[in-house]
Amino acid sequence: MSLFHKTDPNTGPLAFTGEEAIIAVLFLVVTVDGNIAPEEEDLVIAASNRIKTLRKLGIDGFNDAVQKVRDAIGAKGREEVFAVAVQSLPANLKETVYALTADVVYADGIGKAEENDFLRKVQEALGVSDEVASKVVEVMRLKNRG
After folding, report:
1. Residue 6 forms part of a structural domain
2. What pLDDT shows up at residue 11?
3. Domain range holding 45?
4. How far apart are the first and last CA of the chain?
5. What is the Cα–Cα distance from 6 to 125, expressed in whole angstroms?
6. Which of 97, 78, 99, 77 is nearest to 18 (CA)?
7. Which residues, at least 6 apart from 102, have a Cβ–Cβ distance to it below 8 Å?
8. CA 63: distance to chain centroid?
9. CA–CA dist 83, 4 (Å, integer)
10. Residue 3 forms part of a structural domain
11. Cβ–Cβ contacts within 10 Å for residue 26, how many?
12. Lowest-confidence region among 9-18, 23-32, 134-143
């Protein structure tokens, strides 16, 4: 193989496993305002320990998935990473991922405009009903108020 035939792993089609898709959505929400609050980082780590699907990755697998998401954002952009993540999520976890996203948005007690906009985008993309979304947001606001 010559220098002219090197392949870049980021030039092919982007694909995520279900676990990577969850991590991608969570990573996108914690970075939406360009700032990762300590509370947000703690929640993403806690989610990886609470959700059976992510727990089976272990620390190295989780870190590898985060790095894959970071690399994909750098190579493909946030919009494509979001679109692929949404398509890759297991159907039975869509409301769960929405709830995790809401938890991250309200982790610091308030939802900034960019975070709320992203949360709405997640709701629409995942097909979460307004009724469920309202309940989730209400609970997360209460949970993170103090």
Report:
1. no
2. 60
3. 16-143
4. 59
5. 36
6. 97
7. 119, 133, 136, 137, 140
8. 14
9. 31
10. no
11. 25
12. 9-18
